[in-house]
């Protein structure tokens, strides 16, 4: 086992405060680094990850041995495990981020005032990002690279089961920073497994951390949202709805509903509730339920659906608030678009919802009145993803309304400032 | 005196929670109100304020009598006092907001994906804004109108000395909402003078409040920033710097420096520190100091400035961190643009800074490396204002980096969502 820093709560607080200070110091030079320098660093990181494959696999072997001893669940071991192909994937992910447009310095608005002042709104880095994630070693590279691309310093706190793997990957990233002449502290990995480190990050480390991004399951996100004293980009859950209107093309509705639910059931953009227009109960309901059943999906039916199909399993009140993340869907009949909007308003997690309709007035009302980060018309909820949006890479999806909403990519990891060009103007 | 709700801490908490619930409920219909409806409401509010002049003045007379009895400072009485002209100004301010472009529904970005999905990023209201301000009755109307324009419900908590005046103005605003068929709870005024009401707002009222905007002095903002459990748009202070480079046009520098410091000394965009390029000590320093002195400004000089002008009052270390809001300026000689950037990095409040230079490379470095909300080249810091930026009206200026930065106008009081238009796409 690699050397572990000996700690108690006091020294953890000190270690974390020091990490915060160093991140803040590194954020200055990083914020003004040229796009070329950042690209050079990222490409060097990708090369280093490949060159360091043996070291990374050796560190990963320690984590896997510990996981075995701790009798970690198979699914957790699987996401912890690295191999040549996965390491190549990590390097490729960094390269993809390297090739994105640099967001820093981009002019996002410009106008001239009657007095001749020329005002520009220009993207700037946010500063220091804290990323808290579970034992997925690849997130160390993804999150580190994405934050650096946007000119931010980053403090990474990965799950304790992956600490050795994450350290090895982190060492490769730091080599890339060094090769480009960027401060090594721009990407720091919390070196202790103690949970008190997370608590310290959530305080903001005396103002050093500008935003926290939790990546992981509901309990991690819930803790971060409850305790954080700094802004958080996150979604607690993705309780996504699909509404199938009477005007929907049936074949399209079937293929989208099955895709939205079953393509991958464990992702936040998977549909959890199907709302069918009551006026389509005789035409659309049965084919949709059959298609879902054929695809292997369990159906939990509302009282109105049960009246039509009494053999189905009934949905309880709890079902409407449940993110199954599994091959289960709750199904209700609603009173047209108004009923769909009312149901979604009551139960939605404000992540992603879709409407299937040929009637454009129905889609328009859905788009106007449903208040979720992502709304889709005649497309699958599983498109709720930064890559699918063309953002290149994402650090997560946010359901809050402040600053970032929807997929959080490099642009969402920036702020902005105003540059005003004058020719001697004074204010009268 | 008007009827005051009898309260203790428990009932205040209950009253405030109820206000939060009602604001949240009102925010729904307001968010989907048409631009025409909101404009109609705002114009009706302006008319109502004018029509209600007698009632508003009568209520203001009670506040003024109470203020006299409480021996309130003259400056506080002045900002509390209303007259026909000031009421006309309030109505005019609401009309200006009515005429702004409606931000809600504006498409701020749009692109198409290779699979044909058309993605739009569209402005949406934020939800519920809490505004906490001092005893300035006009803010009741300004803040109420601005929030409604952006489709938000608002909870107004004005200073206790202006409670009667604010109530009378609030009644006029509610008449305007009613005339347009918008929910009366879209603009609520906290009906109790107790400070516990502020504490309740800062908790977010069980998730009802999306953002808090404090308008007032440093102690109010500091309390809000320290205690708020919801996002805050604010600036604690405006410690604005002007750097005069060796390459500066001297006449331009004199006029901008005097304007930046002396036009109005009490506003957040007033300059507090003048940094002069050491290389210009022999050419620019004396004329700048003379111009400031002639304009009635007291000078507090750094050690290097004192060497050249030993008769000046010396600046202490504290001066560099002091927002005078008065006819006083601290002056230092710095080692060119690098020295200016280092000084600003150390002492700035990240509000507004200006560079006076003919050398465009100097301006470019200043623009790139200084991390404040507003940077100006060859123009006065007193342009740091939403109206001067062409935003029509502002609720304040923010120095945070999240969501809103710089002047906070109607656009900054919005969020956004993604609308994705498909033709049956499923994710492979």
Word description of this protein:
The structure is a homodimer of 428-residue chains. Chain A starts with 8 loop residues before the first helix and ends with a strand. In chain A, the strands form 4 sheets. A 7-stranded parallel sheet of chain A has the order 10-9-11-8-7-12-13, sandwiched between helices. A 4-stranded parallel sheet of chain A has the order 5-4-3-6, with helices on both faces. In chain A, strands 1-2-16 form a 3-stranded antiparallel sheet, with no helix packed on it. Chain A is α/β, with parallel strands linked by helices and 428 residues long. The longest helix of chain A has 23 residues, at 9-31. In chain A, α2 (35-51) packs across α7, α3 (53-69) runs antiparallel to α7 and α5 packs parallel to α6. In chain A, a hairpin with a 7-residue loop joins β14 and β15. Chain A has 2 domains: 9-233 and 408-418, Aldehyde Dehydrogenase, Chain A, domain 1, CATH 3.40.605.10; 240-388, Aldehyde Dehydrogenase, Chain A, domain 2, CATH 3.40.309. Chain A contains 14 helices and 16 strands. At the A-B interface, β2, α10, α14, β13 and β16 of A face β2, α10, α14, β13 and β16 of B. β13 of chain A pairs parallel with β16 of chain B, so a sheet runs across the interface. Chains A, B: GO terms for molecular function: glutamate-5-semialdehyde dehydrogenase activity; NADP binding. Chains A, B: One of its GO terms (biological process) is L-proline biosynthetic process.
